[in-house]
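Re: folding output
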Amino acid sequence: MAQHFGVVPSGFSPLPQRPATPTLPAHPCGPDELAALIGAARAVRPAPVSAVVGTASDVISRANGELLAAAWADGGGTVLATVHWPEAAASWLRPSRRFAAPEPDVWLVAATVPGWAAMGRRLVTSTEWSPARTFVTAPLADPELIALGGIGTFDGLRGAYPDGRLWTIQRTLLEP
């Protein structure tokens, strides 16, 4: 079972405290980014077998999610579920539970900042999701994600830039 290692502060709401600023639309995931994400996810110990893929509802995020699922399966992994969510919702409880409930070894995400920030806040308050076992596409390498999610919400979250360089969120920083 995955575990979240952060502490949810008293009074923490799953809803972002301010509206998200518009973000760049998701970009198609290229071969360097895809290889880096799948490689980083496979390097988790103990060795992961299962994954859940999550995506925003836009066409590009969904297409990137299909690429992530195919790459994971091509490497011998099992995709337990694919979960989609909107950029804005009255409640994030249902998609967050569907995303976390299969209790995968890792999560693979293709999304944009507004929806993922809200999903992350709900995941922290309502599930056993672990950002340290979550690997995301380049559009989420944005300081706005940390600002909307709240300090600590995404600690350990990892992603890849389009050129394949990896990054990690630690508190308030995107670190190479």
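--- second protein (sequence, then structure) ---
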Amino acid sequence: MSRELEYPRLLPSVLVPEDERSGRGRSTRDWVVDVLAFLIAVLIGLAVFADAHDRQDFPDWFVLLDMVSGAAACVALFWRRRWPVHLAVALVVVAAYSSAAGGAAIVALFTVAVHRPFRTVAPIAAAVIVTQPVYIAIFPQSSTPYWVGIVLSVLIVTVAIVWGMFVRARRQLVFSLRDRAERAETEQQLRVEQARAQERARIAREMHDVLAHRISLLSLHAGALEFRPDAPPEEVARAAGVIRTSAHQALEDLRAVIGVLREVPDGDRPERPQPTLADLPALIDESRAAGMRVQYDWALPPEAAVPEGLGRNAYRIVQEGLTNARKHARGSAVDVSVAGAPGDGLTLEIRNRLPVGAFAALEIPGAGTGIVGLAERTSLAGGRLEHGRTDAGDYRLWAWLPWAT
């Protein structure tokens, strides 16, 4: 079963006005930035106001108008996130006759450059340049040539726009990287889920032949008892023993895969019976024949009979460990140890040195889903799985599986 990822269309909150954030309010960071912008506009406005009115005497009403307009412009900056373009246009007009509103107009222009594309910023910047002759006519600078004032105005406007566009580009980059990281994490979670589902399906398929065999034995011997009620006591006891043993083993197999959903397309045949712990020496020999240096340590009681379900899980764990060592630690020696006893559980450990130098460069990339499958298999069996780098510089895959008495 395939699943498709659907990503919602996300807009970075750092690039859209406050009223377009789906009801999201202003954050603490936004308030700090807004207060800082207000203070900067006030300081610039006071400096320009003092300089402009020192050079020339104006009527009291004009001085009051200048001060009130500048104060209103600075306070209006607290709404610059909601209406950046409208506020910038209004402050351009106000700044044409109010020296105290100059700082607020620059901050508003910077805000538009941060939240809007250049095609929106350019007309507002042009309006600032166009209104400069009006400002210079009201506040003439006798010590500075006319063209110098225009050049300075253009330079200030350019710096504000470039700075705002830089902030916008940086925020877009940060958002893009964050979005990619979130998408990658979502895709990785999906791969893990798919690996778990595939592992569950594979375990279910492995159980098919085993359970069918157990149940067929139960049916055969139960039928014999039904149709031969006069059979000798020895045969009845032997058949009952077979039924009891088969039923117990079938229950153990079912307990190992309880909750596993099996999905096999129509027409697929069950897989052949899976290998068990008795096939482990052949797996070791096969790895050695492939060129691996494998040290094999078997520490199980000679008389112990390993259940088939336990043996299958152990075989798969060792098989995955050898596969990983062959892929990611080519040329390194591998130590495989199998120990345990009924009642104590079965312990498996696959250890190899991490590759260095030329062998490290030959590492084959992997999807990382093999360990996920082992973890799922071990968890379903009621065991534990550990893997990772050790302090000695080795890679260690360790598993413990319950082994009933």
